[in-house]
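User: Run a structure prediction on this.
Assistant: Running it now.
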Amino acid sequence: MTTAFSCRGCRSQRIEPVLDLGDVPASDTFPHEHAPLPDRRWPLELYMCRSCALVQLGPAGPAAIDEQGAIESATALAHARRAVAAIMRDERLQAGDTLIEIDSGHGGSWLPGFVDSGLAIREPNTTADLVVDLHGMMHAADLDAAVAAHAARIAPSGRLVCEFYYLGALVEGSLIDTIRHGHFSYLSLVAAVRLFDRHGLVACRAERVPMFGGSLRVTVRRAVDGAHSYVDTSVAELLEVERRAGLDDLSAVAALGRRGRAAATAFRAHLASA
């Protein structure tokens, strides 16, 4: 594995390796059959920060992948409708409230549903009553800077709702096929809470959702007087589940690394034999 580097979330250098999948091509590279070999490869390595528990890619890799707008699947569209309805209800939003959406390009944008609900769109460099990050944070090479930008977008009484691929699902199912260049971080709630705290934000609601094999939707507000009155029991409940699963501890994630390496080795052998 590569040498030590600073955590993408908290800047600490207390980084420990947990999985090395070797040198692999970028996931968005589809060369023509007559393209010259060998395909260019980069290390695909997973680390965990001992300070904030963020699981993340190592520093070596291709340039940031430019996610193109995906075709909207029926699953993504149905999820978008459910998410918009839940957020409008739970956050007591009304027509005329303002919205900023940061969309990763994976598909399933919630923007049309919010527009149909009467929310007014604002540009990313302004502030809004609702800021939505839809699988965008994990694509940020500098996660700390991305959350700082979100904090600046939240209106004084506003909130950030972010959905991201969930480390808990990855560990439970050994879903190493989700680990790829361009996915710079794999967040647990415990790591997200510490990250938000760095920027004066408090997590108020957390909900597991089935998208992409298992994702987490978290609602965040500014940590000002009265903010904790918005904190739902779901946050403490999921944090306790994560602690029991060891998601804040290196050993559980290192075990994922061992299982992942074994699965990758077996799959490579299967492909070679076929």
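The CA atoms of residues 14 and 50 lie 5 Å apart.
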